[in-house]
Write a structure and sequence with these properties.
16 helices, about 30% helix, 29 strands
Amino acid sequence: MKVLVLGGYGVFGARLARLLIRDGHDVCIAGRNRAAAQSLAAELGCNALRFDRAGDLTALAGFDVVVDAAGPFHSYGDDPYRLARAAICTGVHYLDLSDNATFCAGIAALDDAAQAAGLCVISGLSTVPALSSAAVRALVGDEIPRVIDSAILPGNRSPRGLSVMASILAQAGRPMSIWRGRKWCWARGWSAPRDYLLPDGVSRQGWQIEVPDLQLFPAHFGAETVVFRAGLELGVMRYGLAAFACLRRVMPFPVNLPVVRAFKIAADLLAPFGGGRGGMVVMVVVGQERRFWRLLAEDGDGPFIPAIAARALLRRTTLPAGARVALEAISLQEAEAAMSDLRVRTEHASEPLDPIFPRVLGSDFAALPAQIRATHLTADCSRWQGRAKVHRGDGLWSRFLGRVFGFPEAADEIPVTVIKTVTPKGETWLRRFGHRSFRSRLVATPAGMTESFGPFTFLLGLKLHDNALHYPVVTGRLGPVPLPRWLLPISETREYVSNDEFRFDVMLFAPLTKGLLVHYQGTLHEMASDAPFYGSSC
């Protein structure tokens, strides 16, 4: 095929051009910088063309395919699909490497025209969502995933294009919508870091960013939660970007070209440090099992990965007609075949999902009523709602402690929501009674389950008795300092089932006085996906 690669001398466009030439395509490198296009074309032995996406597009005639590898796609202005429409009018297939959710999804508006012309118009034919969706499908088969958690983790010596940097910097600190626990909620760009394992035992840290997967995967795969992260190898760069994100939360100034260039200069100064090995992880939870697809690219070959999906598609003898986002546009088998001449290794792995309550309770967990077990099998984020009755202690000491810990005020009936979020160490429980809330952190330890409220940590003697789960307090500490028994609260807390409903009964007595601190009891059921949610995030 005769392929015009727009942005063909950029970080990813140049690598796509190299791969397509290896496959025998007739490639022309195009862009606004004629000298850069001609320089790379001379090296690769192909043609070059000065081509401005915003200018005259008649040069599309004579090509079979145009691939837009330029970007940044979020800044394409009021007519973002000008090139795609011109390609359809000229009789040329259109592909792009966009990683912008809005841009990718909007390409479907051209479907009727593409179908009528018998042309292939696909947006997002890159690492996300094309390669990531192919990996998810390979991992889940015909099953529905509970969680999809993906990350791209390049090495520090991988080249950095201005377009990619502009995209990430523009997101830093800004709100983005994510699907967690069957609800749309808000998160911040470059937040919530988490460690990921690559082949060869390589561990990297990823931070939440916005990609098409977040908007497209919930409906496409039916997942309860979809999260995505990207990483930087050097800590000084990761946490420097986190500081920049915090600054933009306070002062939401725009990210313009001078800002991007300043970050590019800083990144180039740090380029000699770290390494060039990078990778990608796609993890899904299906039932009570985690399944992984992991990729590790050796020094120098990581930047080829965003070009793999386009290469794989253009290896086909015919291209599918219509305009759509690149969800499962290729299969994982096709993608791995398109990487076979690169220094890239992939692996599949699986492990049991290991929730903290089954871990601590052991065989007793299976003996719990099903309604109780269901509340303690959170894969990422689950939400529960119901009604409660609250009594508060009358003494001055009890009122003081109740205010310190944020316990709810007395009420004959009040709506209650419990949000359980899995963390690297355990779970966080956010309890909301009306408009008041308090949070605790639960961790499974060799000694048993601990629950922390701020600096206070209590060891819970979880036990099954009379078909109910009881939560007595065994020991406690303030920071690292153990608390004597007379400074411990007394907990008469249980979860049980009545009339096929999950019920909770929490009665706490204050340390020292042993007077009633708080007593709340009620029912919970899993929040429906269409129920209103007044929280900002998990």
